[in-house]
Amino acid sequence: MTIHASWKADQGSSACALDNGTAHWAADLDTSAGGDPSLPNPHDLLDSALAACTTLTIQLYAKRKAYPIRSVAVSVAHVEEAGKYQLKRTIKIEGELEQPVLDDLLRVANRCPVHKSLSAQISIETSLA
């Protein structure tokens, strides 16, 4: 799947439109740079990918294992410093769960596809169309 981003000077804002061929969303600059505060900035999108993937992975795994979870809430914040981008993820799982089950769910959270991608060596190849 390919993500497409586009912007036009005559639209009157800095926001860019995003789509993957079926879903559509938008992103903008940080509010400190004049972006729309109601839209996520690119770092929000990156952080939200980890939060969403973690939540969905735990949900799917718990369902498959018949773990009695009532809810999953994942928070992701980041700290950016001189060449380092550190993601800080907090997971809250509600349900009647014993510690071994919670440990298993934490293990699975650390294996969600986006976590694995972000923990791998990433390379970016760029070309002009």
TrEMBL record:
Xref: Gene3D superfamilies: 3.30.300.20
InterPro entries: KH_dom-like_a/b, OsmC/Ohr_fam, OsmC/Ohrsf
Pfam families referenced in this protein's UniProt entry, alphabetically: OsmC
Domain of life of the source: Bacteria
Protein name, UniProt field: Osmotically inducible protein C
Lineage, uppermost ranks: Bacteria, Pseudomonadati, Pseudomonadota, Betaproteobacteria, Burkholderiales
